[in-house]
Amino acid sequence: MTQTRQATDQENRNARPARPAGGANAPAETLVRVEKLEKTYRTARGELRLFHELDLEVKTGEMVAIVGQSGAGKSTLLHILGALDRASAGGVYCASTDVARLSERDAAVFRNREIGYVWQFHYLLPEFSALENVAMPLLARGVGKREALGVAASWLREVGLEDRSDHRPGELSGGEQQRVALARALVNHPRLLLADEPTGDLDEGTSERVFELLERLHATHGLTSILVTHNLELAARCTRALRLEAGRLVPLNSGPRMELHPNQESEIHSRQAL
Question: pTM of this prediction?
Fold first, then answer.
């Protein structure tokens, strides 16, 4: 069973479309589609609406940046796209999957096979080596340990850390830890990479190097990427940059600035602490 499943996985990966070449005439397929998304929370002050009929479409091969004020819902949007949270209403389709209809078990399988995550904090397991951390998603899928470690080693080479494979996270710098986290996110060859402030906890020089690595991996591995960032310079280097305000996404530089409800940020932080 495991060998058959692994063979099928490899066939699926080989069949996935690469990033469209510049100037290509064939239109890229839509990988992510969000229609009239709503997300509400009950708080001590009543119902809080985070998104209001939010729409989003991301084509295969795009790198889309999302910016916005703290508390606007950027991370929550990534969680919904990656089946870590559920929308209150609206449609969410990702990698040909109706995310809203997934059971908890199917959502876990979907995340493992189709989604790569990179967070502001690396969330590496401190008791395991860099190599073992990268191999974790493969082991969770049922890949044999020897094969999983071999694939993980190739990804550590990809991010320039082959000589640090036996080091534990506490023995690595912040930039090195984030590069390990990026390798772990991509080890399953996901169709979609979700990155939540991937350089937000790094100094300026390290942040630039990590983002350059992200750009290179996006291009060479035909990724589709959605990243949240407060860095407008990095956002400008993406295919598109969108601003999340008043519950909707708009082009970063279009129209007058929309203001959030004055209580929205504090409300969101309050319900996250519950």
Answer: 0.80
